[in-house]
Every structure is written in C-alpha cells, then in structure tokens.
C-alpha cells in the first residue's frame, strides 16, 4: 500500500478549507466557562498558526 500525503505536516500536507463565521460557530465545551470555550476555538489553536 502506498503512503499518501506527508505525515510530518499538519493534515498530511493536504489542502483544507475552513469556512463560516468563527464568532457564531463556537466549539462545544461541556460545563466549560466562557474562557474555556474561547480557548477551544480554532483561531486560538496551534492549527491556526499553520493556516494561510
């Protein structure tokens, strides 16, 4: 079986498209405070630093 993508990069080097209003689509954090929810959002994630 051949290896697809580059596993050393985020998402294996594949192009990912994120869309939507990130202020309206918040993550679900069970019993989380407002601060917990904000810190779980995509634009505060390590993934965001690798986005263009």
TrEMBL record:
GO BP annotation list: DNA recombination; DNA repair; telomere maintenance
Similarity remark: Belongs to the helicase family.
Residue span(s) of domain DNA helicase Pif1-like DEAD-box helicase: 7-50
Protein name: ATP-dependent DNA helicase
InterPro entries according to UniProt: DNA_helicase_pif1-like_DEAD
This protein's record includes keyword DNA damage: yes
Reaction it catalyzes: ATP + H2O = ADP + phosphate + H(+)
Keywords: ATP-binding, DNA damage, DNA recombination, DNA repair, Helicase, Hydrolase, Nucleotide-binding
EC number, as in UniProt: 5.6.2.3
An example molecular function term from Gene Ontology annotations: ATP binding
Organism: Trifolium medium
EC class name: isomerase
Cofactor(s) the protein requires to work: Mg(2+)
Alphabetized Pfam families for the sequence: PIF1 (PF05970)
Domain of life: Eukaryota
């Amino acid at each position: 079986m051949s290896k697809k993508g580059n596993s050393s990069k985020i998402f294996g080097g594949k192009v990912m498209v994120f869309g939507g209003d990130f202020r309206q689509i918040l993550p679900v954090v069970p019993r989380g405070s407002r601060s917990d929810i904000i810190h779980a959002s995509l634009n505060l994630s390590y993934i965001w630093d690798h986005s263009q």
